[in-house]
Design a protein that fits this description.
By secondary structure, the chain is mainly alpha-helical. The protein has one domain. 67% of the residues lie in helices and 6% in strands. Strands 1-4 form a two-stranded antiparallel ribbon. The chain has a two-stranded antiparallel sheet with strand order 2-3. β2 and β3 form a beta hairpin. The termini are far apart. This is Lipopolysaccharide assembly protein A domain-containing protein.
Amino acid sequence: MRTLALLSLLIAIAAVTFALQNSAPIAVQFLGWRSVHTSMALVLLITFSFGVLFGFIVSLFPAIKNMRKRSELAREVKQQQHENEELSRQLSEATHQVEVLQTAQPQHYLSEDTSSNYPSDTSTNY
């Protein structure tokens, strides 16, 4: 942004310098319209000003489009953050319910020696 402002300032200085060095009186014709003799500096400055104004107006449309897109994305981010918070709350609640169920029911674990819990089948011959 800073570079753009510096470049714009340099272009404006160059335009003013050019206009001041070309100050001879001229007559301008445009689509059948004819002006009185006016200095070339004034014509150039007016033309330059219209160019800057036109460039500004043309650049407004993409800027407005970008602002709308940014607003839409910010709204979407806010919605997803809300959804994320809700899912985190549900996960926390489910984790708490699992902990409550685990503490309410006694844990039955198999003993380390599992062979004593099952009858051995030694009569089967393969």
